[in-house]
Every structure is written in structure tokens, then in C-alpha cells.
């Protein structure tokens, strides 16, 4: 099982620093190893920050190019993980607003979208080639990602780090360049907002909730949010976040149940596209930025 990059016990920071020094010497294999180690984590952050696979791919590409062109400035005085994910954080804070962010600009917008999506029986024609539960799961994942987008960008990233990937307040604070206490406060507010909204109508945690994924799936298909012929978030063939992230969660509010804690950890952990190919295509850009990175 791959190591959680954000774990307190992350054991590869020293190795990362060695890889950076080798990359500076022109060892492209070291550069590729760094990309392979971190690309999926960057991609999964980007996906939850944008709510779109296409936007996440573009955002991850932009971040990786930014990291590679700045790698020569890493002086080794701090954790490489902190240095790298500060670049990630700054990028996702300052990027242009994405389409899904306009769609889910607030919990009220999310609520209205669901309110105007009629409860419908799932069309039997879709069950011929794909199981009903797969379509329902796709709808659920998209809806939960939309909820995360309702948080402002700072709350969103803190929630992704602290709740989804179990980042401690110390490490999270270093990445966000805020105090651990402030990280915990932001995380607590984000969790309370999400929990309050989910408890309101969603049946995932509230068995009496009126909004059920299975009743919204057909409407999601007809609106184009879910494409049975091109499923993007189905979890049957990919890893789950909780397999990578520790089950430990810092205590922020006694009213938060374990079921809420696990709700977002049971979402997929997606493999990223092949950014090694991108690296090879962009090598001239990197050479210019570094002042002459050469293959060995």
C-alpha cells in the first residue's frame, strides 16, 4: 500500500531531498521518481478543488510544471513535502475560478440544484450493460464533491487535507502557512458546515433524509451530470481514500460521528494521468528555467 504523503510518519522526506539533489545534477530518473511519487496526491487535491476531471488534469499539469521549474530553488532547509505542497496550495488558491465552482458556489446553490432535480425511478434500460448501484455511486460521488465545492477555497483545502487525508494540524498548518490552532479552527468550521448541510436532507447520514441518491440518479443522467457510457468516478476499479489515509482524526467536535468522518474517506483515490510523458515533452522549458538541466 502506498504511503500517505501527509502522515506524521512519512518516511521519505530524506529520500525526496536526495532525489532533488540528483535531479539538479541532471539525473532525469530522479526527477521522474519525484513526479511519480507525488503526482496522484496533487491530482486528487486538484480534483476535489475543481470538481472536474478535465480541470484537475490541467491544474495538476500546471502545478507540476511550476514545481519542476522551481525545483532548483529548493535549498533543503525545510521539509520537501512542505515546500512542494505550499506550491500546490498557492496555485489552487489563485487559479481562475472553474466551471464547477460557479455551479456549486454555495450550499444554497447545491440545495436548489437538488430541489429542482425530480425524484425519478432509474430507467431499466441502463441496467442492461451496467449495474444500477454503479450509476447510483457515480451520482453520490459527484454530489459529495459538489458539497466540498460549496466551501470557500481555504476551508476546502483545509478540509481535504485534514478530513480526507488525515493531515495533522501541525503539517497542515505548515503547508497552509498558518498556525496549527488556526488550521484546527478552519477545519472545525468546515466540518460543521458540511455536517449541518448533510444532516438537513441527505439520507447518507440521516436515515430520515428526503434526498436519496437512487432517486436522483435518473435526473442526473438526463441533466448530463452522469453519463452511463462514460463513468468517471465509479469506485469498483480504483482505490479508496481510507486505504491510504490514517483512520485517526484530530478531535475537533464531539458531535461529529465516525460515519461523517468516513463519508468522504470512502470516496475514490484516483490514479493520475501519466505526467512523466508530460515531463519529457516539457524538458526544454525546464532546461531554460534551471539554466541547463541535462540528461545524463
TrEMBL record:
One function term, GO molecular function aspect: sigma factor activity
Keywords, ordered alphabetically: Sigma factor, Transcription, Transcription regulation
GO biological process per UniProt: DNA-templated transcription initiation
InterPro entries reported for this sequence: RNA_pol_sigma-70-like, RNA_pol_sigma-70_dom, RNA_pol_sigma70_r2, RNA_pol_sigma_r2, RNA_pol_sigma_r3/r4-like, WH-like_DNA-bd_sf
SUPFAM superfamilies, sorted: Sigma2 domain of RNA polymerase sigma factors, Sigma3 and sigma4 domains of RNA polymerase sigma factors
Highest taxon in the source lineage: Bacteria
Pfam families hit by this protein: Sigma70_r2
Limits of the RNA polymerase sigma-70 region domain: 34-100
Record-stated family: Belongs to the sigma-70 factor family. ECF subfamily.
PANTHER family: RNA POLYMERASE ECF-TYPE SIGMA FACTO, RNA POLYMERASE SIGMA FACTOR
Name assigned to this protein: Sigma-70 family RNA polymerase sigma factor
Amino acid at each position: 500500500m502506498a504511503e500517505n504523503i501527509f502522515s506524521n510518519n512519512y518516511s521519505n522526506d530524506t529520500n525526496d531531498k536526495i532525489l532533488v539533489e540528483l535531479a539538479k545534477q541532471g539525473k532525469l530518473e530522479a526527477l521522474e521518481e519525484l513526479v511519480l511519487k507525488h503526482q496522484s496526491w496533487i491530482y486528487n487535491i486538484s480534483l476535489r478543488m475543481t470538481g472536474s476531471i478535465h480541470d484537475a488534469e490541467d491544474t495538476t499539469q500546471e502545478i507540476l510544471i511550476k514545481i519542476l521549474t522551481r525545483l532548483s530553488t529548493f535549498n533543503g532547509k525545510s521539509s520537501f513535502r512542505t515546500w512542494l505542497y505550499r506550491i500546490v496550495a498557492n496555485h489552487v488558491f489563485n487559479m481562475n475560478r472553474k466551471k464547477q465552482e460557479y455551479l456549486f458556489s454555495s450550499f444554497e446553490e447545491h440545495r436548489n440544484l437538488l430541489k429542482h432535480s425530480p425524484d425519478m425511478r432509474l430507467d431499466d434500460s441502463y441496467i442492461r450493460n451496467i449495474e444500477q448501484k454503479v450509476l447510483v455511486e457515480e451520482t453520490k460521488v459527484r454530489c459529495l464533491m459538489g458539497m466540498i465545492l460549496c466551501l470557500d477555497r481555504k476551508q476546502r483545502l483545509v478540509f481535504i487535507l485534514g478530513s480526507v487525508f488525515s493531515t495533522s494540524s501541525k503539517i497542515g498548518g505548515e503547508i497552509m502557512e498558518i498556525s496549527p490552532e488556526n488550521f484546527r479552527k478552519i477545519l472545525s468550521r468546515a466540518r460543521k458546515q458540511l455536517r449541518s448541510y448533510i444532516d438537513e436532507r441527505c439520507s447518507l447520514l440521516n436515515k430520515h433524509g428526503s434526498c436519496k441518491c437512487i432517486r436522483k440518479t435518473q435526473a442526473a443522467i438526463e441533466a448530463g451530470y452522469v453519463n452511463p457510457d462514460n463513468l468517471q468516478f465509479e469506485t469498483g476499479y480504483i482505490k479508496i481514500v481510507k486505504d491510504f489515509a490514517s483512520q485517526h482524526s484530530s478531535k475537533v467536535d464531539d458531535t461529529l460521528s465516525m460515519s461523517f468522518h468516513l463519508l468522504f474517506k470512502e470516496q475514490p483515490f484516483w490514479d493520475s494521468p501519466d505526467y512523466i510523458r508530460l515531463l519529457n515533452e516539457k524538458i526544454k522549458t525546464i532546461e531554460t528555467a534551471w539554466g541547463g538541466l541535462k540528461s545524463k
